[in-house]
Amino acid sequence: MSADPATPPVLAFGVEPSDRRFRLRLARYPALADAIGAFVGRRDTAVATRLLDIGCGRGRTLRYVEALPGGIAERVEWVGVDLDPRLPERLHHRARWHAALADISHGLPFRDAAFDVVVCEQVIEHLDDPAAALSEMARVLRPGGLLVVGVPTFPPGVAALRDLAASVVSRDDAKHGHGHVQTFSAVSFRRLVERTGAFEIERLRGFRSASGGVLAPLEDRRWWWRLNGVMLGAFPWFAAEVQVVARRLP
Question: Mapping DSSP to helix (H, G, I), strand (E, B) and coil, where does residue 231 land?
Fold first, then answer.
């Protein structure tokens, strides 16, 4: 939000209140919405697309998909899980969601192949066993279904040093009960997804190499957001976060 309470916030990407029109820390959300929109748009309009958002938080996924043309959000059945006990009161358009408290580390309370789309943003870095979490996502995703999963990342050398430091320095997060217990580079995260043997990766894209500070005013410029997208799409190993878009294999 704006530091000046007298100044009304702008809408980041035309969707949610923010202090910048193209806030790079939110750039993953229009990207994942586009992936969902393209997937839903190719499906039979008479059949609802079942979507599971793991770590759904405030329901940002729905907020950004609602902004897509063609009523895409209306063609989706929204299911969300999160650890936050405030989940019911925080969700955007709460009535649209089937939401539950659940921890992917202990398994998801859904049958096999229950969903057409699984979204999991900024969760896996908090888990002790990220490979098991990806296998659980594969279990609940139908063959041919869409996976959109993202994590914060570091350049490969920095990632290795951070992992080494993590063995000495605790990174507990008092707010959530745990912090980032995994460190990924774009390369290591892609390999983690590939090693499940359950997904065919369609693309890996990066977001936000540098943001805020003296560069913050540039985040009001569409060209700066677009330039970041082009450069970090081509060189995701320099990004501060990456997103994998993949399909569930038979």
Answer: helix
- Beta strand spans in the chain (E): 10-12, 16-18, 49-54, 76-82, 97-101, 115-121, 141-152, 199-207, 241-248
CB 147 within 8 A of CB 156: no
- Of the candidates 157, 241, 146, 244, the residue with the CA atom closest to the CA atom of residue 195: 244
Q: Who's near 197: CB < 8 A, 6+ residues apart?
A: 249
- Total residue length of the chain: 250
**How do residues 37-83 score in pLDDT, each as one tens digit?**
999 999 987 889 999 999 999 999 999 999 999 999 999 999 999 99
Closest CA relative to residue 238, chosen from 205, 212, 214, 215? 205
What is the assigned CATH class of domain 10-248? alpha beta
- Which of 134, 92, 119, 94 minimizes the C-alpha distance to 33? 119
Give the CA distances from residue 49 to residues 79, 118, 203, 227, in Å, rounded to whole numbers and listed in that order. 11, 11, 22, 32
Segment among 51-65, 161-175, 200-214 with least mean pLDDT: 161-175
The domain ranges of the chain are: 10-248
3-state SS, residue 137: helix
Cα gap 121→62, rounded to integer Å: 13
pTM: 0.88
DSSP H or E run through 36: helix 28-41
Nearest residue to 239 via CA among 14, 12, 27, 8: 27
